[in-house]
Amino acid sequence: MSINILEQYLPDHTFHHLKKWFSDYYIHIKITKSRTSKLGDYRRLPDKSHQITVNATLDKQLFFFVLTHELAHLIAFEKFKFRISAHGQEWKDTFREMLLESIDVYSDDLKPIILNFSRNPKANFMASPELVRYFHIENPAENAVFVEELLINDEFIYKGDTYVVLEKKKKLYLCLRRKNSKKYLFRPLAKVEKITINEQQ
């Protein structure tokens, strides 16, 4: 993919960062359809080139953030010769350096969130509440909420099944699935459909 095509998905003033990060490697960038399971990924190909995919539907600043995340994998693996875990300390340090180096790309209201995130980069975007809230595209469903917005004993629907909130356990929420009476843990930012009193009547 040419840099001109890639730039259509990116904020302004990113070229000099990408030129520096790309310079030593042969990288295939693929823009994909929206994927609910991931925002992007990285893999090393058999010919020792590299492939990075990023979802096409992302906000430009989030697209750049995800691209930086995946490039950090490439750079960390190349530097440490694949003797590291995917999201280990080497990757965290590399990602942090890249985020701080490119902080000028982000808008003024996003910069403090990126700086806070950079202190301890997370492997999963969904584990970063500030970033999820900043970039979240609201679900048009009237009763769509985050699990953390529910109260104890509130009921909600997730993937067609009804659950009730039992208690908060550290950073997760213990919920009971009505269908089989089994208990499940939900992340605070899991998106669910709240059941209102009128719906229960």
- The proportion of strand residues reads 15-25%
Individual helix count: 7
Q: What is the helix fraction of residues, given as a range?
A: 25-40%
Please state the average pLDDT score: 88
Shape: elongated
Largest sheet: 6 strands, antiparallel
Poorly predicted runs: 137-141
Broad structural category = alpha+beta
Going across the major beta sheet, what is the strand order? 4-9-5-6-7-8
How is the topology of this model organized?
Elements: H1 3-7, H2 15-22, E1 27-32, E2 40-44, E3 50-55, H3 60-80, H4 89-101, H5 111-118, H6 129-135, E4 144-146, E5 155-158, E6 161-169, E7 172-177, E8 183-186, E9 191-194, H7 197-200
Parallel strand pairs: 1-3
Antiparallel strand pairs: 2-3, 4-9, 5-6, 5-9, 6-7, 7-8
Helix pairs in contact: 3-4
Question: What do you see in this structure?
Answer:
- With 201 residues, the chain is α+β, with helices and mostly antiparallel strands.
- The protein has seven helices and nine strands.
- It has helices at residues 3-7, 15-22, 60-80, 89-101, 111-118, 129-135, 197-200, and strands at 27-32, 40-44, 50-55, 144-146, 155-158, 161-169, 172-177, 183-186, 191-194.
- The strands form two sheets. A six-stranded antiparallel β-sheet has the order 4-9-5-6-7-8, with no helix packed on it.
- Strand 5 and strand 6 form a beta hairpin.
- Helix 3 packs across helix 4 (89-101).
- The chain starts with a helix and ends with a helix.
- The relative contact order is 0.10.
